[in-house]
Amino acid sequence: MKLSNTEKLSLYGLAGSNLLGLVGKRTHPPAIIWVLTRRCFYECSHCDSWRDETPIDLAMLEVVAGKIAQARTKIVALSGGEPMMVKTLEPIVERLKSAGKKVSINTNGHLLEENADWVVRLGVDHVQVSVDGHTAELHDSIRRRHGSFDKILRGIDRVRRLRGSGIPKVSVCATVMKDNFEHLRELVERFDEVADAVELQPVHDSPGLLATAGAQPFSGEDRPAVRRELNRLVSDGGVFDDGFYRNFERFLFEPDSMQHLATDHCMPMIFNTLTVRDRGEAYICRYPLGHSLAEESVADVWSSAERWQLYRRLSEQGCGQPCWIRCNIHPSPAPGRALKKVAWSW
Fold this sequence. Notes:
Structural class: alpha/beta
Helix content: 40-55%
């Protein structure tokens, strides 16, 4: 989600104020990732969200929406599962936008065409659509839903036509797996003109963070070919010529070696972002805090001793199940290392 310079300064100011928590001050998270539901109607080969049958508790979502609207949080990312399965998504977004929040929606894109009118009318700031192939044949085979590729394209097109030069900005994010890694450049080229941005993330085996299961695993024999395809993208320059994509191969084939590197890069994000699950349970990344917005305010949860204890544990031990997700990765490890020193000294 692109922010103006004024918005960035405001966000950085709120992030800096988090350090006041070290001396017992109540603070608020600059950003919240809200998992509205873990359910999804796609049966993707690399994801098991479709197995979740937990009923969507609309009354609880209303309670949590009220708590988030009252907080001094600047950015709210609505995620899932598939958030557009939530029948009250429109009024939830309206409430958050009325409270002055920057709102992003992460979606599989299947229902985007039907919801495009209110998404644009309410001023949603960013929509991220997950796409896993450059052709309908490849994408639909991974998603196990015939026609999904064309349905997503129609949704993106409708949003962009309605918004004109305004918002939301639309990005496409693809999960790199054995089924599609040989076509990364083709995928980027296919969606460069369709969306405002294209991003990639590696397939994960990350219980508690991402719903991943069933994808055919990479083997050591795949590594030279994966390196070749990634180098093609990096050599093109632009957004792919950075530390995130240069460490992509390492994460896919040596994830355990990134226990501390991933923490260094992720610490600015997890230091400034609260994750909220569908029942109001509060997390920092994959780690439960033992608190809930069903019973407490955002400030109460964010200012809890458990949050600071988690930072110290991560600073000492790193992450035992590191992730490598674009939205979590700071371009430089330096700020994360500084925050680890702060957490260590606390």
